[in-house]
């Protein structure tokens, strides 16, 4: 039992109710703080994407993609490998499900960079057929775009690594660079290149910053809601357990 006296009032509450109230306040306050952190992270991503939009595209050269800023605009020189492409599954555009097409490019210094050529719909809305993503033998080419992380799932249950068989293109869901490199038998650059809209051999390319549909303001709104619940939990606890002392 918890007992406190202050002035003409006293608080009398059972231990279990007090523990429940403390746990609720701590949980809701922590969730609010987490949403506040997410809002700050989203602002950083939005700012980085805007900076990449306004910057010129520098030649990647011998630099590692991991050493450059996320969303940095770069140009890369090399040759596509159309025989070994990946289809990133569970990618949507305008409410439709489809794939993003990842095509390896062997750079002039023999490193391998994955170029995301954009989004394609499911053929006829069905999964029992793969889209035609064939590339002409273009020879050496220079392309430009933004560097970005590979997409990550909200839940690990959504991950499907590339199959180990010899069939290409390989359908995969939220793989990491190591898994894609293992399927290729190559060490690949950590970041993908989001192909610029003006470049040839691409599909739908409506690039935006990560979690663009979840704005910083929305995270702030959730912060207010969680902290409001923390305050409500405390107020209810006090209301139910504070009483006026008898004269």
Secondary structure topology:
Layout: E1 2-6, E2 9-13, H1 15-54, E3 58-59, E4 73-80, E5 86-93, E6 96-107, E7 112-121, E8 141-148, E9 170-172, H2 177-184, E10 192-195, H3 216-241, E11 242-244
Parallel strand pairs: 3-4, 5-9, 7-10
Antiparallel strand pairs: 1-2, 2-11, 4-6, 4-8, 5-6, 6-7, 8-10
Q: Give the helix level as a range of percent.
A: 25-40%
- The amount of beta strand, in percent, is 25-35%
Number of structural units classed as domains = 2
Instruction: Report low-confidence residues grouped into runs of 5 or more.
Output: none
Large-scale geometry: elongated
- What is the number of E strands? 11
Query: Rounded to an integer, what's the Rg over CA atoms?
Result: 26 Å
Strand order of the largest sheet: 4-6-7-10-8
Please give the alpha-carbon distance between the first and last residues: 23 Å
Main sheet makeup: 5 strands, mixed, barrel
What's the total helix number?
3
């Amino acid at each position: 039992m918890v007992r406190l006296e202050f002035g003409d009032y006293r608080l009398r509450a059972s231990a279990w109710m007090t523990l429940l109230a403390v746990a609720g306040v701590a949980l809701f306050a922590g969730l609010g703080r987490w949403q506040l952190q997410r809002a700050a992270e989203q602002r950083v991503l939005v700012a980085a994407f805007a900076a990449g939009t306004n910057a010129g595209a520098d030649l990647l050269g011998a630099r590692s993609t991991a050493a450059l800023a996320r969303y940095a605009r770069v140009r890369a020189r090399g040759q596509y490998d159309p025989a070994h492409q990946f289809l990133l599954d569970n990618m949507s555009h305008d409410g439709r499900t489809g794939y993003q097409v990842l095509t390896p490019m062997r750079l002039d210094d023999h490193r391998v960079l994955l170029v995301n050529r954009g989004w394609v719909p499911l053929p006829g809305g069905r999964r029992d057929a793969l889209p035609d993503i064939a590339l002409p033998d273009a020879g050496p080419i220079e392309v430009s775009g933004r560097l970005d992380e590979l997409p990550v799932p909200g839940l690990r249950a959504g991950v499907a690594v590339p199959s180990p068989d010899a069939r290409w293109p390989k359908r995969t869901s939220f793989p990491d660079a190591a898994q894609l490199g293992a399927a290729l038998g190559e060490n690949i650059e950590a970041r993908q290149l989001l192909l610029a809209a003006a470049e040839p051999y691409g599909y739908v390319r409506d690039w935006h910053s990560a979690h663009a549909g979840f704005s910083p303001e929305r995270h702030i709104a959730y912060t207010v809601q969680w902290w409001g619940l923390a305050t409500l939990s405390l107020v209810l606890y006090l209301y139910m357990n504070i009483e006026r002392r008898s004269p």
